[in-house]
What we know:
This protein has a five-stranded antiparallel β-sheet, with helices on one face. It has a three-stranded antiparallel β-sheet with strand order 6-7-8, covered by helices on one side. It has 152 residues and is of the alpha+beta class.
Amino acid sequence: MRINFNLLNKLNEGGYTLLESIIQLSVLLLFSQLFTLTIGLLFKAEDYVTNPIDTEWALFIRDVESYLNDVEILTIQREDIGVRFRKGEEEFDIELYQDLIRKQKNRLGHEQMLLRVKSISTTLDGPFLRFSVEFTNGVKKEHTFYVTYREK
């Protein structure tokens, strides 16, 4: 079998046409737009997944809940910046201190519970204790705890 190269050369004489270039350019533009959109969505997803505030808030709620069982006395601190409660012979404070919420035991020590806090508001309505927190980035979180009191 013999290939006639002269015939192939005659078929390719048209060269690269304007129509072919427009089609290739439009395909390139379409893929570049899809690439840009995909990268933008990946950055948004990364910000959502790696946001530490939601995780820290969930841990804070769990930690506070562990202290609010069998409480003898619970009071709101001055200007609603925290709570003070007594369990047995120990007294605990959970309060705003500078830009964090801290826990103190018998008014000693300083255990950080929640960081980057701008303001806090606490309200007590019967057995329900509500914490409202605003973070330094403007995010606001709120949770209501159920307090169980020790029978005397």
